[in-house]
Amino acid sequence: MSRRPSAGRNDPTEAYLGRLARLLAGRTGGARVLEEIGDHLADARDDYVAAGLEPAEAARRAVADLGSERAVARQLGRRQHDRRRWRNIGYGMALAATSGGVVGLGIVAGRTIADVRQLAHAVAVYSATAFVGISLLDALRRDRALFGRAAPAAAMSRLLAALAGVAVVIALIATTVGRPALGLDLFAVAAVWALTACWQRRGARWHAQAGGADPALLSHGLT
Amino acid sequence: MNESAPRRTPGHVDLLLLSAVADGPKHGYAIARFLDTRSGGRFGLKEGTLYPALRRLEEGGLVSSASTVVNGRQRHVYTITAAGRTTLASQRDEWQQYAAAMAGILGGVRP
Description:
The complex is a heterodimer.
Chain A: H1 12-24, H2 30-50, H3 55-66, H4 69-108, H5 113-147, H6 152-176, H7 180-210
Chain B: H1 13-22, E1 26-27, H2 28-38, H3 50-59, E2 63-70, E3 73-80, H4 82-107
Helix pairs in contact in B: 1-4
């Protein structure tokens, strides 16, 4: 962020940014939108002053040109809601496919119904664990969006993919030495970890494209 | 900036934004000014909503952004991507067909 328009506590641009910051608090990408709108207000006010308006009137017009801060928040919120919904549908479908695949493998391998139930139970436990991991990674990504730090999520997704690879190797060894049950369970773990890593890589790439935000935005209460 | 302009926005914000950045890389305020100038202030866009729209285009891979120093200040500058140019061409064709159809109808009608 390069600068902020400021003409005291009654400055309409500061008031607008404060209201917008409260509306965007906690939303992914909100910090950057706020930063860009702050710069936009500063540019617009400068242009109006250069055109001969008084600073107070210039600030009022700059705010009026932007339109309602609620409209901005609504636009960003709707976009995020759509994205989150599709992402959750994706998670659900991927996990359902994994569970189905594991159960199918169990049936093909000639296991009993009790074994298949055990496998399904194991997949459910691993899926829940993966969701905990996803939540933690999302928190780290939000940190990056706010503070502009290098994305730890990308490194963690690489680690998760590596762990999935290790799990596959151990599963193959277990199957070879006569422990097919352990092998199948490990395949399930590897599949869930690999899928999680893929989704997190997508998220990390998006954040890398979007760029970070200015820590000074925290002064507007954006958390 | 044009206060006398009608406050009505056609539902083609993506097309407008892609056209603006196809003209050359721009930051948000420059995009708003480009649209205002080229339209003669007729669209009356609420400029604040351009930023969520730009982020949506960026997520869709139609524009990319980079933090760049412009006139001594750090700004997010948007550039159209190859996918953005393809989408722009497609949307422009659709819009021109629509405009031609409207002109065909209105051209034969006397008020």
